[in-house]
Amino acid sequence: MPQARRIKKKPAKSTRRKSKPRNIPWGLLVVVLVTGVILGKLLSGAQNNDSGLGSGLRALVNNFDADPVDDDEAIAELVEKESTEKEFDFYSVLPDIEQVMPDDLPEAAPSRTDSDLIYYVQAASFRHQADAEKLRARLALKGFKSITQVRTSPETGTFYRVRLGPYPDRRKAKTAKNQLQRAGVRPMVYSVKSSAG
C-alpha cells in the first residue's frame, strides 16, 4: 500500500524585514579617530612640562585655581582718563535763549509759503566718513538715492550727514521719511529757505 507523503508547509513570509547590521560610515570613524588623537595629545601635553599642544590647557587649569585679580581700580582709572563724557552747563550751551517781548508788537509778517522752502530728509549724522558711506551704500541697496554733506563747527567738530532730497513740499519729504523708517532708519525732516525765493 502506498504510503502517504507528508507535505511540508512552507513557512509564511513575514512582513517584517530582517534588519541588516548597520555599517559605521568611514567618515565618522575618521573623525572619531582624529578627535581621539587630538584629545590624547592635549592631555599628554597638559601632564608633561613641555611647550607642546597641551601646555595652554595646563596653564588654563593652573590659572583657574588661582585667586581672581581685582581690576576695579585699573578700570576706574581708565574710565577716568579716557571717558569722553562731558558736563554741559545749560546756560553756556543755550545762551540768551529767553528774551522779553514788548507788549506793542508790530503786525505779523505773512508766513512763508511752501514755495519758499525746500525739504530734506536726514537719515543720520556720523563723526566718521566711513560710517556715513556704509549707510549710503545700505540705502542705495534699498533703492534710496542719498548724498553725504560735511558740516564743520568749531564747537562740535566735523559731522558727516547722510541726507535725501531736495523735496519740493513737506508731504513728499514725510513720505520719504516713512519709507526710511520702514527700512530701519530713524530719519528727520528739515527745511531750508529756497535760494530762488
From TrEMBL:
This is SPOR domain-containing protein. Residues 1-20 are annotated as: Disordered. SUPFAM superfamilies: Sporulation related repeat. InterPro entries: Cell_div_SPOR-domain, SPOR-like_dom, SPOR-like_sf. One of its GO terms (molecular function) is peptidoglycan binding. It holds the Pfam family SPOR. PANTHER family: CELL DIVISION PROTEIN DEDD-RELATED (PTHR38687). Residues 113-192 form the SPOR domain. It comes from the Bacteria.
